[in-house]
Amino acid sequence: MGPAAGGGNVRGATRLVAVATVLAVAGMSAACGAGTADPPVTAQSGGATHDGHGQGAPPPPSPTPPRAGERFVTLKMPQPYAPVAPNGGTDEYRCFLVDPGLSTQAYLTGSQFLPQNADIVHHAIFFQIPPAGAAEARELDEGTPGEGWQCFGDSGVNGDAWVAHWAPGADEVLLDEGLGYEMPAGSQLVMQVHYNLLATGGKSGSTDQSSIRLRLADATTAMTPLATMQAPAPVELPCTAQESGPLCDRDAAIKDVTRRFGQDVGSSAADLLQWCSQGKPAPGSTQHCDHPMEGAATIYATAGHMHLLGRAITIELNPGTTGAQTLLDVPQYNFDDQAIRPLATPVKIKKGDVLRVTCTHDAGLRKMLPQLQSLPPRYVVWGDGTADEMCLGLLIGTPS
């Protein structure tokens, strides 16, 4: 979920994926097609080895000491969980309800995710659940056998708001003083973990009990509330000329995504095309989507997310105009380095400005990557699995 114009939260009728929603994001609606100041956000990189694909995790670095008015709160999954991928897939998304114990208003000013079993943790997202949604979250948790609940898409709770995430290459995120995500008294957190089980063919091979270290500040100091804004683009990557097989057919590939993850995720390819190119697929390695802004915002940091076939990702402001700016440029995408990129100077975006997200993927990597070599070739569309793909621009800022 993302913040709508005016700072509220909306829930899209269709959830795109765990890390992207219908474009009710910071007042953005989609109309798409084929002397430096101190940075306001510090993202410490964890190196170039992807800990979520069987490489083993180095010890996390020590966090920056708490600043005045801050405290650390560490939250852990209630019990170890043994993931099992459903429907013959190799990925599971599981949500766990954790309670930060807030009796008064606070602000989340930083976080550090601590994957306990980094061999199977692909990424994690944390959603703030407002007090009014806490009962719904508890009902989901208590009504599902075992720990947590399955949650392809978002958390499944109305009114959720993305406040933290982890992907390979990211360790502690420290926001500049005076910036933070609102955490009302009585609010909860949902820890959504994407488990990658390619190594075991989707079967349960081990358990995980990950945790997160929150940096919380009380509300006695004036704070500027932040929001994570999400801007996706389509993925329409055909098989290479050397590949063949039933899943090289686009319709068959979409049916396979739907079988593994359900209709909400399976409809993502069609939804993105409708928003981004009038519903017409244009197969190719590079795709983009333009997002006209319906409201103003100030952007402090950016990030990009793709999966293993990703080659490059950019986020541009007002492309093709005299005032064009590049907010994110990753010409050699590395899945193992998805840390947040702070902007040297915050960028103000006006109503009517256009944000363009562009991604390049390479189907030829399928034969080069051990994780994918045993899988049948496929026409790749947007999907939740490690072997599927995404094209997502993330912007951390303050909607006006």
UniProtKB/TrEMBL annotation:
Name of the protein in question: Copper type II ascorbate-dependent monooxygenase C-terminal domain-containing protein
Disordered: region residues: 41-70
Molecular function via GO: copper ion binding; dopamine beta-monooxygenase activity
Lineage: Bacteria, Bacillati, Actinomycetota, Actinomycetes, Micromonosporales
A family per Pfam: Cu2_monoox_C
Amino acid composition bias (Pro residues), ranges on this chain: 57-66
Gene3D superfamilies: 2.60.120.230, Copper type II, ascorbate-dependent monooxygenase, N-terminal domain (2.60.120.310)
Keywords from the named record: Disulfide bond, Signal
Superkingdom classification of source: Bacteria
Organism: Phytohabitans rumicis
Keyword Protein biosynthesis: no
Signal peptide: 1-33
PANTHER family tied to this protein: DOPAMINE BETA HYDROXYLASE RELATED (PTHR10157), MOXD1 HOMOLOG 1 (PTHR10157:SF23)
